[in-house]
Amino acid sequence: MKSFGGNILFLDRSDINTDEIIPAKYLTEITKTALKPFLLEDLILEGFDPAVDINGKQVIVTRANFGCGSSREHAPWALEVNGIYVVIAENFARIFRQNMYNCGMCAIELKTETIDHLFNIYNGISASVDIDLDRGLLTFSGGGKVETVEFQMAPFDLELIKAGGWVEYADSKY
Amino acid sequence: MGKTIAQKIFDSHLVDMPYEGVNVLRLDAVFCHEITTPIAITDLEARGKDRVFDPSKIKAVIDHVTPAKDSKTAEQGKILRDWALRHKIKDFFDIGRNGVCHAIFPEKGFVRPGYTVIMGDSHTCTHGAFGAFAAGIGTTDLEVGILKGVCAFKAPKTFKFILKGNLKEGVYAKDVILYIISQLGVNGATNRVMEFTGPVIDSMSMESRMTLCNMAIEAGGTVGICYPDMVTVDYLWPFINNEFENKEAALKEYSKWISDSDAEYEKVIEYDLSSLDPKATFGYKPDQVKSISEMEGTVVDQVYIGSCTNGRIEDLREAAKVLKDKKIADSVRGILSPATPAIYKQAMDEGILEIFFEAGFCITNSTCGACLGMSNGVLAEGEVCASTTNRNFSGRMGKGGTVHLMSPASAAATAIAGKITNSPLYKG
Ligand code: SF4
């Protein structure tokens, strides 16, 4: 199982699609690591510079419908090879969300008000989050403030994370 | 309480429910292409699990970049080709016989009402036009599908759409689905089955229903689904005539999938589409939709007609009606990619290719090509393309390019004018 948590990259936009996360022209790569330099290369977000902003971040906090569009699992992989195993959002596109858990990564949904609050308090300063999967707790800290937020994770999703993904789970079971 | 079509399909395919709401379904078909499958194959190999659950239920095609454009795409094709050979996957379509996945697989009769289908491609929702549960999935789900013939889905919550009225002449399934997406938003149907019913659907061809269902994912939908009816049976008849005594018998059998009249829906949404006019997208999200009449005059550099959305014979016919005896503007690069070789051949026989050719279009082989900005018409920074495809995301057809989605007739008219305009087929 991966270890989750760390410094936060805030992406203040809804509907970030998988073409923005990893453009189609890189789909010809056959290794995950080759995707590393191209994460969020085409993201439309004012002031965002992938070359500077991604470095040293392990968690993304963003708005609604993250990961919509193409089914490419290259999107979670591009996050994975950059050491980002967690995305926290209001909600996710179905395929992207499933891909995250299938890869043993975490897609956590929080209420709109909570996401708004996180943006208000921590966006723009250096902030981080600790994640306790078993108890369903996120502990945010930054700017001298520490606070804990609860989250829900379906038991099946947690089992996928612990089993190391869906291939191993399904092959042993079906 | 009755059941929806998706619930009936789930119930008849349920293998396991490891947790409340997690439905592991048996799959009737697993479709594969050369962009998302090779990486699944190499991963299965690395895990020592290079097996397939049933080669007769796996169908594969090289369609996204074909012929290969460089060593990397050649390698992707090779991995898929070698794998199909190794596992005796007979339904593998390589160059000369290959076409865009969501056009060629239905054309070969691989989808039936009541089927469960997955593919590592978000537009797999297209096949719901046949009354199937067909969903796009990622590489890991694809691996499990290939290996075990199962896939896990959440219980299917359904939005029922009742589409009433008569579409005006020159208004198509593409305009209908763009309108619906604009009403729902790109996230409006996430995790939902979109069930399309009503007189507008009843009078649509299978091609139009596929166009409609193709874009369900652009509203977040898992699948767009239409009830099987005589139109479905007529389309499938060459493939099923040895299974049924006559078409009525086939219809009777397939009708069992149709949602019960007392089925439970999360939402029922009714639209009267009698006054709908031709639509196009602006901006970078497929829910950013306006009437073409509001966008008149927007200059374009390229017009692309093709793809799993609108590269079928019916689409080519409508565009050809507009292009006949006309020339496209000097400033426009026109590109046509008939979605499959059979469509290509038919268009040739009907004189449609000649019309495109005379109008000044470049006609490419059947491929995804420019739709995803990988080959055959990639845009330069700042360029604008009127396209019959399904995604106007930033960078989709080339970094810095803009895409306006529209119907083939509107795209053809736009090619002639050099700027966005309504087709003369639309009598508004
Ligand atoms: S035509 Fe475009 S949308 Fe359709 S499968 Fe190919 S790349 Fe995807």
Short description:
Chain A is of the alpha/beta class. Chain A is built from seven helices and seven strands, in the order βααβαβαβαβββαα. Chain A has one domain (5-168): Aconitase, domain 4 (Alpha-Beta Barrel), CATH 3.20.19.10.
Could you characterize what this model shows?
The complex is a heterodimer of chains A (174) and B (428). Chain A has helices at 18-21, 50-53, 74-81, 94-102, 112-122, 155-163, 166-173, and strands at 5-11, 59-62, 86-89, 106-109, 127-132, 137-142, 145-150. Chain A is an alpha/beta fold. Chain A has a single domain (5-168), classed as Aconitase, domain 4, CATH 3.20.19.10. Chain A is globular and about 45 Å long. Chain B has helices at residues 5-13, 37-46, 71-86, 101-107, 139-148, 173-184, 199-202, 206-214, 230-240, 247-254, 292-295, 307-310, 313-323, 341-349, 352-359, 408-417; strands spanning 14-16, 22-26, 29-33, 58-61, 92-93, 116-119, 133-136, 150-154, 157-164, 192-197, 223-226, 267-272, 279-281, 289-291, 302-306, 333-337, 361-363, 384-387, 402-405. Chain B folds into 3 domains: 5-154, Aconitase, domain 3; 158-257 and 265-272, Aconitase, Domain 2 (3-Layer(aba) Sandwich); 280-417, 2-Layer Sandwich (Aconitase, domain 3), CATH 3.30.499.10. The radius of gyration of chain B is 21 Å and the shape is globular. In chain B, α2 crosses α3 and α13 packs across α15 (352-359). Chain B has a 5-stranded parallel sheet with strand order 5-4-3-6-7, covered by helices on one side. Chain B has a 5-stranded parallel sheet with strand order 17-16-15-18-19. A 4-stranded parallel sheet of chain B has the order 11-10-9-12. Chain B contains 16 helices and 19 strands. Chain B is α/β, with parallel strands linked by helices. In chain B, β4 (58-61), α3 (71-86) and β5 form a beta-alpha-beta unit. The model of chain B has no long low-confidence stretch (mean pLDDT 97). The interface between A and B is large, with 45 and 56 residues. Bound molecules: iron/sulfur cluster. Iron/sulfur cluster (SF4) binds at residues 64, 100-102, 121, 123, 307-308, 368, 371-372, 389-390 of chain B.
